[in-house]
Design goal:
The complex is a heterodimer. By secondary structure, chain A is mainly alpha-helical. Helices cover 76% and strands 2% of the residues of chain A. The chains are: A mainly alpha, B mainly alpha.
């Protein structure tokens, strides 16, 4: 019993409340409190590393001992997610200070952002399925509003699409949870694993597993369920896009899937094949659709689908190495995709366009953005020694070791196509000749460069120090799944 | 008991039909609303079948309705704003995002 898990929810909620009260009196209260709260969350999550990564579980219980009441617990997988959320959210909130000046009512943006972070933090903390659902719902509702924040034609259209798809997803998750509870009498994830262990899947349990797969798949935007993602991620304000692509889809969709299919249901070959096939379809089709895009943010959004495919492929292989690679790629993707969205956002802010054909030669005018985006592009295309290379390599090796050479080949082809499409981004935005009307472009303000440099340094640092990162952060998290899965 | 489960399924599928087949934003929202109600009904029936009073199923049912209400009001606001911008509720005319 410890108060720590509760702090992850209280801090963002308190920051939202404080901003709501003070923004009329003090205009900059939003800038200050959001960044302070996010920095506090990062410090808090890093402070828990020594205890939790040794295998200890920090838990907090409030209310009844049964499934009623609030039950939070932090194991090493949850902590990995919390750290990733905090890093990306801190970068995005620093970036927002200047970027969000373009929009009206900035304080409301910060309030929604903090609510979304509170919801996202609840999901990894949740020890039972209802809390997981509530976290998903809080984050999703705040996110719908954030996507529509510009209230122009495109924003509203994307947000409406997302609202419909997201709500259908939620309404699949709920009956799934309800049937599971009806059959087992428990909602606690650890208890459920004990109850279902050794049992075969009855038809109703199978039905609930399918409902959960569809509902969480809609949130994670795998290939048959991806229709909303390119619209929502490309129209949202750039820092929101960075959070959405970087951590939101992973926390809301993928983490729930990991918990349900590794920690509750036993990982069977059927489920493993379903995950791998979904993963490789998303991987290939996502990158093919990305190749044809000329809107830079839309291109990045399609790459999110493709990179989520890698993560699902790695997890679906379900060998220790595959899970390790999947989780490592999850962290890496959060870093470089967040960075790419921030880069494209600063290009859009300084030039007023995100059409690739209208840009060019910005390396001379925006050196920081140019260098950081080159690092991110090399990372996402799997170029050594950047972080994306190692995680993709681990996934491919795991696929070959497990006897799936075709999936390994698909992953390698996807990586080459990714590189092709990022060569296009780099060439059209940062290299080539500078168009006449972009002669007066200046580098983005200091506060926008700091998070970009920070994330680029992390991409390079993790790539160089990857054995240490894997030992300290990734392997304990993968062990949680392996112990439960075996 | 079985007829009530079937009723839930029919309500849910009617909602899906509304979301998938209808072109009017308001009709899509009505479809979502039907789906929310069918899930809430399902939860209450499951609770009744389990013989519980004031238990977890009813709690989740309430949460469903509240969550549904929040999402639905957001959808209606978005639909009204979309009507202001595009002058129509017809989704086949609200198509700026492509590709």
């Amino acid at each position: 019993m410890s108060i720590f898990p509760l702090l992850f929810v209280i801090i963002p909620l308190a920051a939202a409340a404080i901003i709501a009260v003070f923004y009329r009196v003090w205009e900059r209260s939003g800038d200050v409190f959001t960044n302070v709260a996010n920095a506090a969350l990062l410090v808090l999550s890093l402070a828990l590393v020594p205890t939790v990564m040794k295998g200890e579980i920090i838990s907090y219980d409030w209310g009844h001992s049964s499934s009623l009441g609030i039950h939070f617990s932090i194991d090493s997988l949850s902590l990995l997610m919390l750290i990733t959320i905090s890093v990306i959210c801190l970068a995005a909130s620093l970036y927002s200070v200047n970027y969000m000046e373009r929009y009206t009512s900035k304080p409301r943006y910060y309030i929604l952002l903090m609510l979304m972070i509170a919801g996202m933090n609840i999901v990894p903390l949740a020890a039972d399925l209802v809390n997981l659902y509530i976290g998903i719902e809080i984050a999703a509702v705040a996110c719908y509003a954030l996507v529509a924040f510009g209230v122009e034609h495109e924003y509203l259209e994307a947000s409406f699409k997302y609202q419909i798809m997201g709500t259908v997803g939620t309404l699949c998750i709920l009956p799934g949870i309800a049937f599971l509870y009806r059959m087992t009498g428990s909602l606690n994830i650890v208890e459920l694993h004990g109850i279902l262990a050794g049992q075969g899947l009855t038809p109703i349990l199978l039905f609930s597993a399918i409902l959960l797969l569809c509902g969480l798949g809609l949130k994670a935007a795998y290939m048959p369920f991806h229709a909303w993602l390119p619209d929502a991620h490309s129209t949202a304000p750039s820092p929101v896009s960075a959070i959405l692509s970087g951590v939101f889809i992973k926390v809301i969709g993928l983490y729930g899937m990991i918990r349900v299919f590794f920690c509750i249901f036993e990982m069977t070959t059927t489920i493993s094949w379903i995950l791998m096939v979904f993963g490789s379809i998303s991987l290939l089709l996502g990158v093919f659709l990305a190749l044809g895009q000329w809107d830079s943010k839309r291109l990045l959004a399609y790459h999110s689908i493709s990179q989520m495919g890698y993560i699902l492929l790695g997890l679906g292989i379900a060998t220790p190495l595959g899970i390790l690679g999947g989780l490592f790629h999850l962290v890496n993707h959060a870093l470089f995709k967040g960075l790419l969205f921030l880069d494209v956002g600063s290009v859009e802010m300084q030039t007023g366009t995100r059409e690739l054909k209208e840009l060019g030669g910005l390396n001379q005018k925006m050196p920081v953005t140019g260098i950081t985006s080159a690092i991110a592009s090399l990372s996402i295309s799997g170029f050594p020694p950047f972080n994306g290379f190692w995680s993709k390599l681990i996934i491919i090796i795991a696929a070959i070791q497990a006897g799936y050479p075709w999936f390994a080949a698909i992953a390698a082809i996807g990586s080459i196509l990714t590189m092709a499409s990022f060569l296009k981004v780099e060439k059209y935005i940062f290299f080539g000749s500078l168009p006449e009307k972009l002669q007066k472009v200046k580098e983005a303000p200091m506060l926008m460069c700091i998070p970009m440099v920070l994330l680029a340094a992390l991409c390079l640092g993790i790539g160089i120090a990857f054995p240490w990162i894997i030992d300290v952060f990734i392997r304990p998290a993968a062990d949680v799944l392996l112990i439960l899965g075996s | 008991m079985i007829p009530v489960y079937v009723l839930c399924a029919i309500l849910f599928l009617t909602g899906i039909y509304g979301v998938v087949a209808k072109k009017n934003l308001i009709k899509i929202i009505i479809g979502i609303s039907l789906m929310v109600q069918s899930v809430a009904l399902l939860l209450l029936i499951l609770g009744y079948a389990a013989g519980e009073v004031g238990g977890l199923f009813q709690t989740i049912g309430l949460i469903t309705m509240i969550g549904g209400l929040a999402v639905m009001s957001l959808m209606i606001v978005t639909a009204v704003r979309l009507h202001e911008k595009y002058g129509t509720f017809d989704i086949s005319e609200i198509r700026r995002l492509k590709g």
